[in-house]
Design goal:
The structure holds 2 protein chains of 2 kinds. Chain A has 1 helix and 26 strands. By secondary structure, chain A is mainly beta. Chain A has one domain: TolB, C-terminal domain (Neuraminidase, 6 Propeller). In chain A, the strands form 6 sheets. A 6-stranded antiparallel sheet of chain A has the order 6-9-10-11-7-8, with no helix packed on it. Chain A has a 4-stranded antiparallel sheet with strand order 1-26-25-24, with no helix packed on it. A 4-stranded antiparallel sheet of chain A has the order 2-3-4-5, with no helix packed on it. Chain A is globular. In chain A, 44% of the residues are buried. By secondary structure, chain B is α+β, with helices and mostly antiparallel strands. Chain B has 2 domains: 107 residues, Alpha-Beta Plaits (2-Layer Sandwich); 86 residues, 2-Layer Sandwich (Alpha-Beta Plaits), CATH 3.30.70. Chain B is built from 6 helices and 8 strands. In chain B, the strands form 2 sheets. A 5-stranded antiparallel sheet of chain B has the order 2-3-1-4-5, with helices on one face. The N and C termini of chain B lie far apart (52 Å). The chains are: A mainly beta, B alpha+beta.
Amino acid sequence: MNMPLRYLSLVVLFFMGMVACEEKEEVATVWEHQENIELKGINPIGIALDGNDIFLSDGDHNRIVKLSSEGEILMEMEGYDRPMHIDFGEANMEISENMSISLLKERALFIPEYGKDSIAVTRDNRKSYLVLQDSLDAPAGVSVYNDELAIADFYTNRILYYNGNEWTSFGKEGKAMGDFYYPTDVQITDEYIYVADAYNNRGQVFDKTGKPLAAFGEDQNMNAATGIYVTDEEIFMTDFENDRIMVFGMDYQLKQVLETGVDKPTDMIASGDQLLITNYRKGELVRYKRKPLEKE
Amino acid sequence: MKNIIILITIAIGLTAFAKADAQNNNLDHFEIQVDGLGCPFCAYGLEKKFKEFKGIKNVEIQIESGDFSFDYPSEKNLKMEAVLTQVEKAGYTPNEATITRADGSVETNAVDKAMVNKDNLAHSTLFVNGKCGMCKARIEKAVSDLPGVQQVSWDVDSKMLKVTHDADVTSEKQVAAATANVGHDTKTVRADESVYDALPACCHYKRTK
């Protein structure tokens, strides 16, 4: 190696070292309550984001509502039979529309219709339904991740999972690891499938073959863990009856309990430094913001 | 005050209208009080179970109050017992239920309390384990169905049951047995495992050994 190249490689190594050191300096953060936004006439159950727009499923009124970031209603889509935990995504899946079957090839909003035992797929005001070989009984949550899709099926105590090629399902009624007592929400990540095991009052983590890997939150006295949301750093769970959001680290240890402004929460979603929570009974959107933890 | 009177009048009028409407259409009108429907998944589940009754119409559920009502074709002569069983099949405990038949006759499952001897009333307070609004409904129903019981109230937070009863007809021991029979432990009587296990998911309170 000649001299200029040797110097250049030293400089590059030094710079990489600096970056690595900076990455190690993680600042501890906490979530802080910002505001409660009143949603007139909406009882939100599920929440999803599309850019700055907020989509809520309004189960009591059988509709999906699109809101601005300030909570102003921009659009209403009616005719959904008890819509539950919704998700945006683009999955290469068969859908049926007006008796004809086609392949979904665009980003869409997936809406589990609890009262209709089906998953609606909506884009540009067009409604189709997922073609499923299996039958559902009260689907309560759906998650879309790349070409993968998972459904939390309430009454059959199962998770139905599509890996991009084929469907599988796992879970049965019970209290043991891998069992469910009414799953109400699900989220797929790069490696895992997270489930809100609502009336076992816990969260569960599975690999993509359906093998249970962990159960958490059982020691937190939750009462109806109805919603789950996972980021790269945290796992959020709603504790519906106790009016709390439980924030766990990726090691499943409890990091923070959010109670201010939280009242019968059903779902939440994080985006950047913002966390949005749906208060079902009061009809509110609660905004929390991530702040650096102040040292005492 | 005037506003309250107006609101009550409107509410009564609307109920009467609903019943009259049901009668005009040869529909029986059903009203069932199901406490503890706090969670939307539970409430929609109850609604879903009743969809098994083909021909059901005008289903309404007030999640806050637990008031559940629907209309059903009169010629099918849907019985009170079938309705209460269906509520139980969905995992809930029915409280007071009323059927207003299309011909105007009214049926109810309310227990006649005329037997209570008001000169012999005792007040008992006892610990009954449970954890939610559905537990409350179940405990209060089990006790209020006992003969000689005039008033019942169970508090979710303190888990204390207050009963006003004719002590000669129903003893405190019988009250404890009645709550254990529906799955709720007291300090003196423990519910059978199978009954406890059969409680709805959200009612599985922590048992003391």
